[in-house]
């Protein structure tokens, strides 16, 4: 029996029979331990049963033992609504093992159980960044050589004194069924009852580096060279199996040889484990990632795991499709709107519909993505399209911000408080600087996730809507009461306190930054087309037009008497509040923060914040009703 087998046996027994260990630590480790058991069954069952016949009584006894203990280990997991689904998946696996099912069925059932497990109890299945194998080699020399030997053959200076003996990482047969994640888990937890200690004290990235380096010890340079040839010349049959570090970390040679020749698998794995950066570069992106996530989402829906299906549907949009939105907007805006609507339809079908409805929504989405594929495969967007896209994006976002900022400036001038203008100016200037910082971060440092983008836009829009609604009601009250002159002369200085000053800054900042944030991310994506001259032209044109619009707004508002200004602006501000609450709720829907109930009869009018969902329409209706009630109340009081 191998050390790895022994470890899993001991792990199961320890969980079941040891009641005096720390309960909290047990709960924290339980998902990792359960994953280990299920992963082992998935990759090693074929060594126990072939064609319905037991070929190794010892191995088969282990398989039975592991699935029984997996069921019992489930009770150690923290409370979660998905535990019932996990229990059902493990039970199906146990029945299949008892019935000596085909190894392909066992692999499928075990992987399904692990997928449900990870959706409820996320644990690290891959490093957050490409591991440093040189760092792993250094750690191995310091921490592992004394037991496992310089080459990983299990013949270190202390090996003869240990019982059981250290595992030989060079053993190719054992390595075939061992994933890099399994190595990482053993490194992190240690092996109770042996001399293998836990290295949890090491940083996570060091443990992954060590696991990746150990994973290379069962291969030689010739295998790596052959793997390079296969990887460089492959038509996609191999590359499609390694679409990220998570695949490289969790896949084993045993599982891959079900569909690929054993020598091919061995050589490709040998090459990729020494060059994990290639796998990271091969990670599915854009439409490929959207399609992958949609397939996984539909599979989760069919298996009854609605939370996982919803999560994957969100990822299909936020991580796959949304990054290419700006480029598609510049080329075919109508198709962009159709895809966004279809994404909402699919999420609604996944959450509330039947499997057939979800399948139909997915089929419709695939037809639209095929059209997007054809457009995006063009060499580049036409420079004219880039120019128009850059100009319209900035104009669309800029006008909304101008309406708010110019309104604040005009209000302070008319109320003879020019001393407070500095706080408004500080707000929008700070927002522009923050937008520049956002561009630097998004372009040169880290990617801003779709969720972060939508949440930022959504919360910013909702906050701005609430503030604008209150401001609009206040202004209408003063204009309706007919006492605004008296109010301004006697009360305004008292009313504008230090809190109000900060409110001026905050509203100016939020109004501008939410627009700058979206514009920056759109422009970052448009730069990928390479039409930078057209992009700059669109930007400059939009800036000039915004300057003219700002001048026109200041000129017009300056000639209004104060009462008319209050009355007109109060209505305009409330309309903006209705628009922004619709946009904010839509952004939060796209981020998955609130649900989606599609109303197909309602058209999508982005510039008004109108989206065909119950949640956005309800929120806009509510804000509108509050405004109408407030206007009516203040008007009736002024007539008395």
**Main sheet: which strands, in order across?**
1-2
- The domain tally reads 4
Beta content? under 5%
Sheet of most strands = 2 strands, antiparallel
The count of β-strands is 2
Radius of gyration: 31 Å
Distance between the termini: 94 Å
Question: What proportion of the residues is helical, as a percent range?
Answer: over 70%
Which stretches are low in confidence, meaning pLDDT under 50 for 5 or more residues running? 1-27, 480-485, 487-495
Q: Count of DSSP helices?
A: 29
Could you walk me through the main structural features you see in this protein, from its secondary elements to its overall organization?
The chain has 4 domains: 3-120, no CATH class; 133-281, Cytochrome c-like domain (Cytochrome Bc1 Complex, Chain D, domain 2, Orthogonal Bundle), CATH 1.10.760.10; 286-376, no CATH class; 383-638. The N and C termini lie far apart (94 Å). It has a two-stranded antiparallel ribbon with strand order 1-2. Mean pLDDT is 78; it is low at 1-27, 480-485 and 487-495. Helix 2 runs antiparallel to helix 5. It has helices at 3-17, 23-44, 57-73, 83-98, 103-120, 133-143, 145-148, 172-176, 180-189, 204-214, 221-233, 245-250, 253-256, 262-274, 276-281, 286-302, 306-321, 325-331, 333-352, 355-376, 383-414, 421-445, 450-481, 484-490, 492-495, 498-526, 532-558, 562-590, 614-638; strands at residues 49-50, 53-54. The longest helix has 32 residues, at 383-414. Strand 1 and strand 2 form a beta hairpin. It has 640 residues and is an all-alpha fold. 42% of the residues are buried.
